[in-house]
Structures are given as structure tokens and as C-alpha cells.
Amino acid sequence: MLPGALVRLDSAALIGGPAERATNEKGQFRFIGLAPGDYQLVVTISGFNEGRVENIRVALGATTESTVVLQVTGVAESVAVIAAPILDSRRDGLSTNCGKDLIENVPVRRFSAFDLIKSAPGVSATYPTGGAFTQDVSVLGSSTNENAFLLDGTNFT
Fold first, then answer.
1. What's the rounded Cα separation, in Å, for the pair 62 and 130?
2. From CA 157, how far away is CA 155, in angstroms rounded?
3. pLDDT tens, 17-37?
């Protein structure tokens, strides 16, 4: 698969109509929480013919994998120049932002926001054996009181 391809999933089992996702930088995609049923997958990206897989059977609680082969329609070459963000030398510190795509696709259990926080680089649980305070985490060796955690701008440390 290719990065940036548009993947459309359709089925009578889908409430609210077809679902769409873009493939990630590795060309992968994931639809989670699907109801059991038969699905149709359509993949489109510029420069390739539409890829289509039909009669994909999804069972209750199962993981179903599907590979789509795309045929090249014509070869075109282009160069895209993307501006990089400017480094702000007045600001120190580290941050990790969890957007909608990450939250939907990250393969970790999600019982609380701290389960996502623990998946960020440099973060480890201070009670890795599942102690009483499993929400306590250490970031790059700091103590639990030296960190701030924000959810939509609200501090829930």
C-alpha cells in the first residue's frame, strides 16, 4: 500500500454510512470497532487505478486483514516543497500531542488517558507492577510532581 491513499469501507452493517481513512506513512490503515458483516474496500490515490476488494467477512471480536493491489495508470513526477516549523530557542521542554488518528489507531489498551500517556516516548509507569497508583508516571526520569498533563488544554495532572 502507499502512504496517503484514501481507503473507503462500505457495508450495510455500518451505521452512518461508509467510513474513510487515509493510509499512514507506512501505507497501513485500520478501521476499529466494526460490526460483524460483509464489507467492501475501495482504495484510491493519484496515479493508480482504483483498488477494490469485495466480500471481506468481519466476525465478532476478530481482526481481519486485507491487502489491496493498485495498478499504475501513468507515471508522473513532481516535487513538493514543505516549510519546516521554526525552532523557538526561547522555549525549553518536551511535549507529545495525541491527535484523533493516533488515539484511534494506537495499539494500547485505553482504560484512561494515562494509558495513552504511557505510550509516549520517554514515559514510564512509576509502579510498573500495577501498584495502587498506576496513573503515576515518570517522564525522562523526572518525578511525578515535575510533569504536567493537559487534555484539550485542561490540566489533569
1. 28
2. 6
3. 888 989 889 888 888 888 888
